[in-house]
Amino acid sequence: MQWEEHAFGGVMVLSVIEPRLDVDSGDGLKRAVADIVSRRHRRLVIDLSAVRFMDSVGLSCLIGCFKHVGPRGKIVLCGICPSVHTLFRLTRMDEVFESFAAVADAVDSIALKET
C-alpha cells in the first residue's frame, strides 16, 4: 500500500494513495498505523480521498487501526467518497468513526480535543 504522512502539530495525517482498500492493501494500512503509533502519535487522521472502493477486509483493517490506537488516542477519517460512505452507513461504522470532508477540518476536530 502506498501512503503519505504529514504531521500537523500533534496530529498525524496518513493519506492513503490507493484506489482500493481491500485484501491487497489493508495489511499495509495496519502496518502504517502501527508504525505511527510506535512513534508516539496517538491523534491520527486517515485521509481516504483517493480510495474509491473498500470491501469488508478494508473496513476490518480500519477497525483494527481504531483498536490499535486505543482509548488514549483518536482516529478520524476524511475524504470518504459516496460508495465508501454507503459501506460505512450500511455497516453502521459511520457511528464508530467520525468523518470530515476535508483534512483541515479533521485535523482541527482532534487537535482541539484532549485525549
What can you tell me about this protein's structure?
It contains 4 helices and 7 strands; from the N terminus they run E-E-E-H-E-E-H-E-H-E-H. Helix 1 runs parallel beside helix 2. Strand 1 and strand 2 form a beta hairpin. It starts with a strand and ends with a helix. The strands form 2 sheets. It has a 5-stranded mixed β-sheet with strand order 1-2-4-6-7, with helices on both faces. The protein has a two-stranded parallel ribbon with strand order 3-5. The mean pLDDT is 90. With 115 residues, it is of the alpha/beta class. The longest helix has 14 residues. The protein is globular.
Q: Strands of the biggest beta sheet: in what spatial order?
A: 1-2-4-6-7
Oligomer, anyone?
single chain
Structural class: alpha/beta
User: What's the main sheet like?
Assistant: 5 strands, mixed
Count of runs of 4 or more consecutive helical residues? 4
Helices and strands, in N-to-C order?
A: EEEHEEHEHEH
Mean pLDDT: 90
**Rough shape?**
globular
Our measurement of the CA-to-CA distance between the termini, rounded to an integer number of angstroms, reads 29 Å
Low-confidence stretches: none
Helix content percent band: 25-40%
The tally of strands reads 7
Rg, Å, rounded: 13 Å
Strand content: 25-35%
